[in-house]
Amino acid sequence: MSTNPELDIRGGYETKYGFHDSDQFVFKSRRGLDHEIVAQISDMKGEPAWMRDYRLKALEIFEKKAMPMWGGAVWDIDFQNIYYYVKPTSEEVKSWEDVPADMKRTFDKLGIPEAEQKFLSGVGAQYDSEVVYHKIKENLEKQGVVFLSADHGLRDHEELFKQYFGTVIPSTDNKFAALNSAVWSGGSFIYVPKGVHVDVPLQAYFRINTKDMGQFERTLIIVDEGAYVHYVEGCLPPGEQVSRGDRWVNIESVLPGDTVMDSNGEESRVASTRVLPYKGDMLRVVPLSSANAFRLTPEHPVLAVRRRDVLVKRSERKSWLREVNSTRLRASAPAFVPAGELERGDFMVFPISKTTRESAVLTRPVVRLLGYYLAEGSAYVHKTLKQPVVTFTFSERERETIDEVKALILEVSGKRAIEVGQPKKHAVNIIVYSRKLMDLCLDHCGKGAAEKRLSKDVMELPTPLQAELLETYLKGDGSVYRKRKHTMTRACTASQALAWQLQELIARQGHYATINVRKGGPDTILGRAITRRDQYILYFSHDKEQSEVRRGDGYFLVPVKRIDRSPYDGPVFNFELESAPNAYVARGFAVHNCTAPTYSSDSLHSAVVEIIVKAGARCRYTTIQNWSNNVYNLVTKRAVAYRDATMEWVDGNLGSKLTMKYPSVYMVEPGAHGEILSIAFAGKGQHQDAGGKVVHLAPRTTSKIISKSISKDGGRAGYRGLVKIAKGAVDCRSSVNCDALILDEDSRSDTYPYMEIEEDRVSVGHEATVSKIGDEQLFYLMSRGIQKEEAAAMIVSGFIEPIVKELPMEYAVEMNRLIQLQMEGSVG
Q1: Which of 332, 341, 695, 755 is the most exposed place for a label (fewest CB within 10 A)?
Q2: Cis omega (within 30 of 0) on the bond before 338?
Q3: How many angstroms separate the CA atoms of 418 and 396, rounded?
């Protein structure tokens, strides 16, 4: 590891650089909860008097109600240390282009623009307390479908809003429902007219960005007679080439157990990998060396020194960047900065590889000959003679070099080379028939101008031997020229991989080489049409002491030239390392593992969802939540289903410090059906208290609850549910199936089923299982060549399959990936 204490980046990352933006708001209430705060929220929103009164009455109820003593440890919440209202923008917008840039950076990875364009009917985004973006497709508007933020629903459809608001979940229901009723902000308002089928999901995303923030969205959905809607809710935390020390590989190809180069220039093993769907803008950071440009999401941390921290006192000159104090710059300790906060002129860290290994094969004569081969050589099997051939081509004026290459061939292969002149081209070919030399060249340098690359053994040679290879390579493919007072070296290759490797070798010699790309394309030579390859041109100077790039202890500080932004739709990848620093190298520059939003103190998410499903209508409400591990997620969700109506809750709960959530369906007229499918995954320090409630208040109603919980690393997951059949609700059927999977001895699973049956002529079933991953299951899969961790993950995937199959495809993929991520390292 680096001996420079100023570059010790092993501690404090999660709390200091967790994935969150700087607070962005046009108004932020003071901490605490009282009459003044609640009135201020209502006044800021310009609400009608009845809503203001409703809020204040709810506050009184909240203050009188006791904290629940069952479920999780909610008594640790300090309600007076919370910001109850943060308004992040001056007004809600309907076009993505109008959303403020800082909020776009947060929602980039959530994919709102692409989601809207491709498969979603409409989408809302809640950032802290306000919905800042909400839009619905025109064809649904023409059918009378309303999909607005709850605030705009109140403003634009006040009578409809007032008719149903608080009728399913009154403020007297529980302490947290009262809290939400007092301070609610944002959320969604949906009305689907009679007979209208919304065949593609309506979707909303929620995000807590402010430390000690409470998010209290209110969702109200009315599905009129014979209508159908699917509402999808998600809270998601967010490939480029990375260095494996000897070569660059696509990040998606990195697997647990692989070795990569870390930000200290040393080898580190990959502990786990992750992949998530991502839709939105992607940053492209372009350093002084344009070929080293790399893409990443805006919150992904980059190791850097901010230019503004090391400026001299002299003022700016025209459009030039302000000068920096070189002494202060070199003395500054690089720190991780979210890519979205980087600015032109900031200095990124380019680590120098420290991995060195001796090789008995790669002696000084061999590496010098390999340098010549890289520049001017080719290796192949002669088609006619069926003999292995290695050839070199030089100008006839390079007699000294020709003689050295012939001598090296003799020393390395034991064979004498043939010299063949080409007078018309003023060139000389050196030819040797040698299997040993051909294999040596192909093994360590590859073949073909665009495919040549150096082997791991060459990349890890001691620096003096690498200097020998560079010297002979530059004799062939390099040129030296004077630029002002300095001697500059230039080299050119058609191999992108080789260009980056040469840059690393040159860095180990103490020089930073820039790489520029000269794009290829159609061209003509002597009337013959050709296609030129891209050329990668390296430049560096041996004697230039001062430049835009500065040398640090084990790294270079390279300035950012510009940062581009472009839309992206696809997966994003990341990985964890087994040891500190948990940071790797992307296109030469140190970047940290990118995490979910993390703060040193806790945040509160207390939402209320009310749904009315009228006669013959159907509503499905899907939630996948993956809050960071300091969020109290305390949500009240309830639906009322009328005659022959169907209400379905599909609920996925990952992350959070504590989740208490029990979606419920009240079936109030004959023929109504309620269904609750729930997954909970509790990891270290997490308590998932989830389940569902079904209440049969009318005859011939049916319900089904399927609950799956997984706990590992000391996590606690539980099912808490209620089946109630009221007097007179005859011929009802209800089935409850709750299964728990415990992955280690430290974890816990609880089941709290409640049955209140007031009729005899009903059918009620309840099944519950608690199990561990069995040795026999693992043995069966491992006997078929499957690794132990992969086998365990397969068992878990099968365990949750009944619920995952009910998700939209993109959410099923996401849910499986999240579960796989949680599973990593759980066995063995």
Answers
A1: 755
A2: no
A3: 15
CA distances to 476, 538, 566 from 535, rounded to whole Å, are 16, 10, 25
Tokens encoding 164: 């149903």
Residue 251: partners with Cβ closer than 8 Å, 6 or more residues away: 239, 240, 241, 242, 573, 574, 575, 586
Q: Where are the alpha helices (DSSP H) in 414-526?
A: 435-445, 456-459, 463-477, 496-508
| pLDDT value of residue 593 | 66
Query: Would you give the distance in Å from CA 773 to the centre of its chain?
Result: 29
| Strand segments (E) across 29-116 | 86-87
Q: What is the mean pLDDT of the chain?
A: 79
Chain centroid offset of residue 89 CA: 25
Residue scoring higher pLDDT (54 or 188):
54
State the burial class of residue 80 (Cβ atoms within 10 Å of its Cβ: 0-12, 13-18, 19+): exposed
Q: 454 and 444 in contact (C-beta within 8 Å)?
A: yes
- Determine the pLDDT at residue 586: 86
For 124, 204, 206, 207, 613, the CA distances from 186, given in Å and listed in that order, are 10, 11, 10, 12, 22
* Token pair of 797 as six digits: 């995937």
**pLDDT for the residue 96:** 47
Q: Which residues neighbour 92 within 8 Å (Cβ) at sequence distance 6 or greater?
A: 130, 131, 132, 133, 134, 149, 151, 152
Portion of the chain with pLDDT greater than 70, in percent: 77
Q: What pLDDT does residue 504 have?
A: 93
Residues contacting 548, CB < 8 A, separation 6+: 288, 558, 559
Confidence label for 6 from pLDDT (cuts 50, 70 and 90) = very low
Distance CA 429, CA 75 (A): 84
Range name among 85-99, 185-199, 419-433 with the lowest pLDDT average = 85-99
Q: With residue 56 as reference, give the H or E element that holds it.
A: helix 49-64
User: Which one has a higher pLDDT value, 227 or 640?
Assistant: 640
Q: What is the pTM of this model?
A: 0.54
| Angstrom distance (rounded) from CA 556 to CA 235 | 38
The number of C-alpha atoms within 13 Å of 501 and in the hemisphere containing its C-beta is 31
676: which DSSP letter?
E
**220 in Cβ contact with 190 (< 8 Å):** yes
Alpha-carbon distance values, 547 to 288, 312, 352, 381, 551 (Å): 11, 16, 18, 47, 10
**Collapsed DSSP state (helix, strand, coil) of residue 260:** strand
Give the closest residue to 337 by CA, choosing from 304, 292, 379.
304
Confidence (pLDDT) at 120: 33
| The amino acid at 435 | R
- 602-615, pLDDT tens digit by residue? 577 888 999 999 99
Confidence check: pLDDT of 451 > 90: no
- What's the average model confidence in pLDDT over 213-234? 77
Among residues 58, 108, 123, the alpha carbon closest in space to that of 84 is found at: 58
What 3-state DSSP class applies to 73? coil
Rounded average pLDDT over 155-170 = 95
